[in-house]
Write a structure and sequence with these properties.
187 residues; alpha/beta; Glutaredoxin; 6-stranded mixed β-sheet; 6 strands; 45% helix; 18% strand
Length: 187
């Protein structure tokens, strides 16, 4: 019996020496191949529904396009922000103004090349007037534009042009630490 126990112990030691350490396992996990997130087309009504569904958490809405140089430039910052917001307190909605028939040839390769981790919805209509009427964002039609909303739907900040990871993170932290507005009763 002692011989079997000794043999089992020797095998266990040998196997543990061959298995990766915690640090090695972490690096193996980090090096998994990039998985393309969901990409779909969306109507104005669908956008409204997604934004409404985002209420109850802080909401980031980003309007962008692959043909827009500042949009391309800000993607790494948005991807970093998204990866750092995994606590469920922030909903991130990304709406592309690319043509819907360019998803396979432009949007998907763009997402893969920048390893964008968040789902992307390609708007069936990116007309400024229609978007403003649908959402009352006060959007000027500039790309990129990023909005940050409170859980109650109040606009905290709007960035026209490239937003940085630091600016978005700081605005979110300030909004999260601000006291909730007091509701006033109507007489």
């Amino acid at each position: 019996m002692k011989r079997h126990f000794g043999a089992i112990a020797a095998i266990a030691v040998a196997l543990s020496a061959c298995s990766p350490s915690n640090n090695q396992r972490d690096s193996l996990i980090d090096s998994e191949p990039f998985q393309t997130p969901p990409i779909a087309t969306i109507s104005l009504e669908g956008m409204r529904e997604l934004i409404e569904a985002g209420r109850g958490s802080f909401l980031v809405v980003n309007l962008w396009a692959t043909w827009c140089p500042p949009c391309v430039s800000e993607m790494p910052a948005l991807a970093k922000f998204y990866r750092n917001q995994n606590d469920g307190e922030v909903t991130f909605l990304s709406f592309s103004a690319d043509e819907t028939d360019t998803i396979d040839e432009l949007v998907k390769p763009f997402i893969n090349s920048y390893e964008i981790p968040f789902p992307v919805w390609v708007m069936k209509s990116a007309e400024r007037e229609e978007l403003n009427a649908a959402f009352e964002f006060g959007w000027d039609g500039l790309f990129p534009t990023t909005f940050l909303f409170t859980p109650s739907g109040a606009l905290v900040q709007r960035w026209e042009g490239e937003v940085t990871f630091e600016a978005l993170s700081e605005a979110l932290m300030e909004a999260q630490s601000a006291p909730a507005p007091q509701e006033t009763a109507l007489n």
